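Hi R.,

As promised, here are both runs. First protein below:
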Amino acid sequence: MQPFRSSPWTRRLLWLAIPVGIALAAAYFMPRPELLAPLNDVTTDLANPPEFFVAPPERPGYDAARFAPLQRRIHGDLSNARLPWPPQETLARAERLARGSGWTLVGVDAAGLRLQAIAVTRLLRFRDDVVIAVRPAESGGSIVAMRSKSRLGRSDLGTNARRIRAFLAALAAGE
């Protein structure tokens, strides 16, 4: 049996197809440029972001000077959720939803109306820290502030903002 021998045209097509394939894959998978910004800590409350209360020692607080201007530009639509339920009920609903989302709860502070969890990304299994703080609204009901921070990398490619939007939408829908 003779070894496979390709023609010169086959080799040329192969050498052309490889870079074209890579370029097409990069164009297809490349996120929007603004999502490449060095932002990996996103919150709904830029003035008073929820603090992690069961934090690893190396977990810093929210760096407002660094992250707030970027977040306003990229995720300016994020804000606290106003919900009709009393704060204790809202916290209980948030806890059920977090567990149902597959998050690992690492702390629930019922007296402080807050919870902390670890969310894991689907594709690469990155672990991100999430904290939710509930407070009474002046007009009744409650206000929910949320923060999601990636443990690795300078940019989260929009993962934290998508997580916050999806969670708050599901919470508001009563899921």
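And here is the second one, sequence first, then its structure tokens:
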Amino acid sequence: MKLVIGTYTFNAAAKTVDLSSIQGFKIERLLAIINAKTGTLIYAAGDSTRGFSSVAGGVVTLTYNTAGMSNTDALTIIYDLQREGIGDMTACPAASVNGTALLSAIPSNVKAVRFYLNTGDSLTFTVAATQPGAPPVTVTISALYMSNWDEPVSTGINIYITAKTGNPLYRLI
């Protein structure tokens, strides 16, 4: 689940953002930081020019030069609060008109299903207590680039795959 973080301390001169408010902070879950006042992307996961030079606890030192910014500039911070997956990633089942059940039953400790799509993959599904008797109302997710999609579930609910392209995977979370 991706969240916009509202509690932080920005020190523009030191190029640091203190994210100690995030319990169990992990740099690999920090996706982006945008200076909302200027519209400038100052951190992007995987971008060496907009990455980090060090992390101490929850304090991230950025590689991007923020010296011309102000400590009071509003930041949009996107962080992935992913839970560890339950089990291995598994291929999504073949699709059918009325939907093929993802699992025979969703285990009670599962809060969501995370779909992993590679470039060009797409997946169409519905969420229901039982397999629909007619083509259901569906959701379609697709990836121009690699992406993930978390679909919340609860006991007694299942996901029914109605169409897929490529080889999308899933993991219970």
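A quick note on the second one: The mean pLDDT is 87. Let me know what you think.

Best,
J.
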